Amino acid sequence: MSKISKFFKGGASAASKRRGGPSPQEALARLRETEEMLSKKQEYLETRIERELAVARQHGTKNKRAALQALKRKKRYEKQLSQIDGTLSTIEFQREALENSHTNTEVLKNMGYAAQAMKKVHENMDLNKIDDLMQDITEQQDVAQEISDAISNRAGFGDEFDE
């Protein structure tokens, strides 16, 4: 079975059918396969166009009918090549969109894990206890500052005498 027929007839794995659709990795792999196949077809058509152009030049004025037929085939190949270019652009756009969606999903999932971790970390913390602790710390810092100020002031030896 060709790659195209597998693609359209659903050559998907049994696992992906059970899950309700292909995984992003499977879809990306298939899109890349299709891109490769179309790129090869592009190369083939480009060589055919060159060959038909050479045939048209070869027959030139000697056999106008053969030259005209070669130019018609060349034109047909160019039309196919143009269609493949459009298809490749569409596939590339879809692949990029799928990659971005997959990235966004992973980021969202990781943000959810981080939120759960933060919730677990904050689980044992009580806002009232934290407020009380901060007040105690502030009070102790004030006491320490008063002690420091009392120690650093000069002793009043001789300054307090009245003449």
UniProtKB/TrEMBL annotation:
Q: Which UniProt keywords apply?
A: Coiled coil, Cytoplasm, Endosome, Membrane, Protein transport, Transport
What processes does the entry annotate via GO biological process terms?
Answer: late endosome to vacuole transport via multivesicular body sorting pathway; protein transport; vesicle budding from membrane
| Primary subcellular site in the record, as a coarse category | cytoplasm
Q: What is the topology of this protein in the membrane according to its UniProt annotation? A: Peripheral membrane protein
> Key word Iron present in the record?
no
**Where is the protein situated, by its record's location annotation?**
Cytoplasm, Cytosol; Late endosome membrane
InterPro entries the UniProt entry points to: Snf7_fam
Record's Gene Ontology CC terms? cytoplasmic side of plasma membrane; cytosol; ESCRT III complex; late endosome membrane; multivesicular body
The ranges of region (Disordered) come to 1-25
Superkingdom of origin organism? Eukaryota
Do you know which PANTHER family this protein is assigned to? CHARGED MULTIVESICULAR BODY PROTEIN, CHARGED MULTIVESICULAR BODY PROTEIN 4C
Give the UniProt family note. Answer: Belongs to the SNF7 family.
- What protein am I looking at? CHM4C protein
Q: Which organism is it from?
A: Nycticryphes semicollaris
The upper taxonomy is: Eukaryota, Metazoa, Chordata, Craniata, Vertebrata
